[in-house]
Amino acid sequence: MNSAQEAGKDAPAKSEDSASGVADVNGIAAVLRISQFRRLWIVLGLSSLGDWLGLLATSLFAADQVEGTTAKGAAFGGVNVMRLLPAMLLGPLAGVFADRFDRRLTMTICDLLRFGLFVSIPLAAVFLNEPAAAVTWALIATFLIEMVAMFWIPAKEAGLPNLVPRDKLESANQLTLVTTYGVSPVLAALLLAGISRALLSAVDEKVDDLWITPVDLALYVNALTFLAAAIVVFFFVKGLSGKGGDTEEKQRQPGLLASVVQGWQFVKGTTMVRGLVYGILGAFAAGGAVIGIAKPYAASLSGGDAAFSLLFGSLFVGLGAGIGLGPIVVRALSRRRWFGMSIVLAGFSVALLAPAPHLAVAVPLVFLVGAGAGMAYLSGSTLLGKEVQDTMRGRVFAFVQSLVRVVLMLAIALSSLLVGLGGSRTLPVGSLDIQVSTARGLLVVAGVLAIITGVLAFHRMDDKPGVPVIADLIASLRGRPLAVPGGPSMGVFIAVEGGEGAGKSTQIAALAPWLEERGYECVTTHEPGATPLGRKIRQLLLHEESVSPRAEALLYAADRSEHVSTVVRPALSRGAVVITDRYIDSSLAYQGAGRALPTPEIGWLSAWATAALKPDLVVLLDLDPEVGLARVAKRGTADRLESESRLFHERVRSGFLDLAEAEPKRYLVLDATAKPEDITRQIKQRLESLLPVRATSVPRTMVDTSS
User: Is 380 in contact with 279 (CB distance < 8 Å)?
Assistant: First the structure.
């Protein structure tokens, strides 16, 4: 059994594809029920806390070793430069390791090495007893720590998709990224402040009386987080390696240099990955420019350090919000489209920062910059995890991670350098005084570049060419994304629903010839029993003496799955108009409201069975159950459902009406007591707006309705 199967065994998936428009009933909780992922998440939390605490503590440690503002600034900045350099040197090689060697063992060794290196930093200050030497070793250790991290990151990223089902990968990425960029930085800052306060209070605020400095203690605590992570990974997370740790697979792989070349060729030759690269260039260049320009930009808003801190914090709050809330906002939107659109959002927000006259305007825009970058990072990571094969995933993730770090470093450094080259002047605009400066000019340039790269990424990755972007976004927010022209949903899907005796068959029979005359292929069908398998299921459902409610729901779902895959979807792919007598709403009304089963579970079951295929229009023929059952009685013997109590059928009717009320734009509710020809006329009027133009007449296809 592979790790994905094990993940499914730990937590049976109850969510459906994001394109279905139905909310995931489990969300993040479902991912955390997967034991292997839960353990990896604990490891990630520890490592992320260690990374951020290490960044803060090592930078402060280096600055504490020297005197003078310039020297302290150089030491502080030198540590951060050392953290970014390995990305340029080791990214491709680290990716090969993630694809060729056991990922669990790689992560364990990396965490043990980081444990030892972090411990060595404060010890070096004790044994070397020379500030310059201590700073030098801190820089060297930081460089080595980041080298090790370059091997740890792609091993983790490439192994994560092996622990969770594909439909849970976005939720897993949400949780890990929020932990890394939202929770861990805050906890690290609080932990460092807490250590300092605890130590100083122990000696009555007399720093000279401390036997160990707060920064040294923070480094020791940080080292312990990596030791704990190594133990958890080695003993408790078994499913990371996938094919990357498979002996036979490793034997078939080329050498190290050839593997690096192979990875570059894959990135260069894969349209989706190239689109991701363009997008990342734009998103992180824009974010880096905001960070590098934030200090002088805050000054141009007549703000000081507090304004800078507010802008910096808004960026990271936006990043966390984009990662955590983005999927809830965009719902069923294609993740490939979402990636490019997120970068364009970030770019526009950066460009709009330039003319912002006040901090109150700048803060929401900076938040949107972070949100756009966060959504792009989440969708990009999810796409890589789902669409890149396991044997290549480590190299691709390593390339992307290296690119992120390099672009961010260059954007921060270049924007910080350029912002000091120009001056600043005040431009009066009405009652406002707007600052015109190099910082604001650079924001315009960064924003425009981000928009361009976002558009390039969108066109490279677009999986719905020809579909209007804004219209698709609006439709996706409603849970029904637009179909691709000429794709499998080019036809029109209509479901006719209602209680017993409502006249569904009469209306379908009247609509079919009308559609044929207008040049449409019309497929009329029904549930249950429209397929050979369905006829056997129909016999069980309607003529067996006793079927339990849950078994009944499962049998209807089985019939519907076969019906959609063999009748409905093939007809829609030809561009036909498909009219079905009963569909998902009948299960929601009969088994949900009628049998009192949980309606969300029935909805999920039917959506899973049909791969989330929804009708373009649901015609509900509403009828008092007493009238409908009287009509049935005139036909002769009633089946098992028709023989249910009137109270049951009252609940069914209420269930149908509740569904229609929830989505009024997709339903046409008609009084079934009206004259049949009047009902037909109203249905035709509604269909006029749904039907595409047809120039020729085609015959009708009628599915066998015999039971």
Answer: yes
pLDDT in tens, 304-318: 667 777 777 787 788
> Domain 256-481: which topology?
Growth Hormone; Chain: A; (1.20.1250)
Neighbours of 184 (CB within 10 A): 21
pLDDT, one tens digit per residue, over 194-245 is: 766 666 565 455 444 445 677 777 788 878 888 988 898 888 887 776 544 4
Angle (CA) 275-280-281 rounded to 5° is 100
202: its two tokens: 């122990």
User: What DSSP character marks residue 582?
Assistant: S
- Same topology, domains 256-481 and 486-702? Answer is no
Which of 93, 163, 150 is closest to 390 using CA atoms?
163
Per-domain boundaries in the chain = 1-253, 256-481, 486-702
Query: To which H or E segment does residue 257 belong?
Result: helix 256-269
Single pTM value for the model: 0.57
Place of tokens 């022209």: 485
Residue 576's alpha-carbon distances to 304, 561, 702, in angstroms, are 65, 19, 12
Pick the CATH number of 486-702 from 3.50.50.60, 3.40.50.300, 2.60.40.2310, 3.40.50.1220: 3.40.50.300
